[in-house]
Automatic annotation (TrEMBL), chain B:
Record-linked InterPro entries: AAA+_ATPase, ABC_transporter-like_ATP-bd, P-loop_NTPase
SUPFAM superfamilies: P-loop containing nucleoside triphosphate hydrolases
Keywords: ATP-binding, Nucleotide-binding
Residue span(s) of domain ABC transporter: 8-237
GO molecular function: ATP binding; ATP hydrolysis activity
Keyword ATP-binding: yes
Protein name: ABC transporter ATP-binding protein
Species per Swiss-Prot/TrEMBL record: Niastella caeni
Keyword ATP-binding: yes
Taxonomic lineage from the root: Bacteria, Pseudomonadati, Bacteroidota, Chitinophagia, Chitinophagales
Gene3D superfamilies: P-loop containing nucleotide triphosphate hydrolases (3.40.50.300)
Amino acid sequence: MLNAHALRQLAEPGEIINMRTLRFLLQKEFRQIFRDPSIIRIIFMMPSIQLLILPWAADYEVKNIQLSVVDHDHSQYSRQLVNKVTSSGYFKLQDYSGSYLNAMQHIEHDEADLVLEIPADFEKKLIRENEATLFMAINAINGVKANLGGAYLRSIIQDYNREVRLKWVQLPRFNPELQIEVTSSNWFNTSMNYKYFMVPGILVVLVTMVGAFLASLNIVREKEIGTIEQINVTPVKKYHFILGKLIPFWILGLLILTIGLTLARVAYGIVPTGSLLVIYTFAAVYLLAVLGLGLLLSTYTSNQQQAMLLSFFMMMVFILLSGLYTSIDSMPAWAKAITRVNPVTYFIDVMRMVVLKGSGLKDISTHLFTVLGFAVVLNTWAVIHYKKRS
Amino acid sequence: MITNNTAIQAETLTKRFGDFTAVDAISFEVKKGEIFGFLGANGAGKTTAMRMLCGLSIPTSGKATVAGFDVYKQTEHIKRSIGYMSQKFSLYEDLTVKENIRFYAGIYGKSDAFIKEKTAFLLKELHLEAEANKLVRSLPLGWKQKLAFSVAIFHEPEIVFLDEPTGGVDPVTRREFWNMIYKAAESGITIFVTTHYMDEAEYCNRVSIMVDGRIDALDTPAQLKRTFEVRSMDEVFLKLARKAKRAAD
């Protein structure tokens, strides 16, 4: 009896038992995951819904701008101008207003986004003085719409201006004003299709949500129901428990990525220009980082509600400060600094580089090592903070 | 002195959280195969003391050994030698009866053959054969508690810690539960149990009563009743617990 425990320890070859313990933990975890209907829904429904619906809404092109025209001139030229504007496809002629005040009312009632006022002597001035002025008023409540709407209108008017000049200027005569015309071609996304740009980014957000937040919710749930206490009094070691949690969600993250890439191909015809191997290599490392984050979240929260709220908050920051919707280059310096400590930024960048440009491992190596750094820091922090004893 | 016959030994074991002394220099000894009742009002420090003995919490000062292992340095050895059932229900509700047994036995390093053989035996004994492949969630509370106890001693530990194991269970099931405890004790497992039911205290070989972090009384139930000149453990408990200055949590 005295040597009972000594004997037992002799009978237990350490490493073999450890691998076996991990196997039991993984078996339990997978059983629980695939038995939970809400997880199944998240795995299959979330990518489908997010990838099939969101990219259509996340389009920067502004269409259907409501235009209110105040034409004091009623000339041939003014009618031509309005015609040109409305036939561009971006504007919808809301109405012809008799006066500027009248048109302003439409703006106030949110029925018009833009007012174009054509002065009474527009045609006359254009012909006699070779120049004319137009007035444009923009409803700037929706900043994006106002900006782009104004720019579209300006370029249409310029275009019209050129046409008019061309008609007047006789061939042998030179244009008195030199003009530089800029033409551009869009590389890597020739048709400027926003879906090519958004779908890879949204996919990253999906993978992040599964990696970081499902994992942290899962761990916190064990805290909440008290089973973690039970595990803590067993010989299961800290790293066993953590690996038992991380491995299933690591696999789940790669599964979501696969589903997402398949959907992107089927629904939008997006086939990565670069190699899938590069994407998966990066994703494998990236998932280690976000899983570390999930683990860290779970050590700082004691119930699922807290974890959920914290996740929600972090997700907002992650999405808005990752360059998914807005360009990082136009952010203020402090916001740029935040995007640099946001792992999502790097994956979105890599996804776009590989999917659109066909970048290889060498091109993304800086990103890869940065994210690897995140993985090491976050996991170390989480493991230190995850206490088995108090 | 730790003898061959000692399962748990504590000497001036203390746990402080800041200024608050949750467990105040308790000393006691539990013999092998004994059913030791660990009583006290809510907030008296029972759970904290138990957590230290299980290796979940590091003592502030004092000495203790569990199954011959030191609570400071040999917690991993302690964990291999004990079973634990907490007042919170601790089986996985979304796993079946069989899966729970297999999981817990597995993480204690039991072989597949051992697990298979003993599971069959246990299911038969608990009359749970028909429920073996049902989720634990679907079992009545009393069955869950009995199953949790069986799982806690499945790996044949030297000592099992039971933290209010019969909370919320009907009297008939409580009776059956105590029969299981007796059976386990007969097979040589030391039982360390906390309870609020004084009739259960009567079933113990010896009981200790904690008041404000200290052990105020420790003896057989019969001897305690004699000392305090009362007829039941209920009265012993009330006499001691009334002295408590600490508010219950």
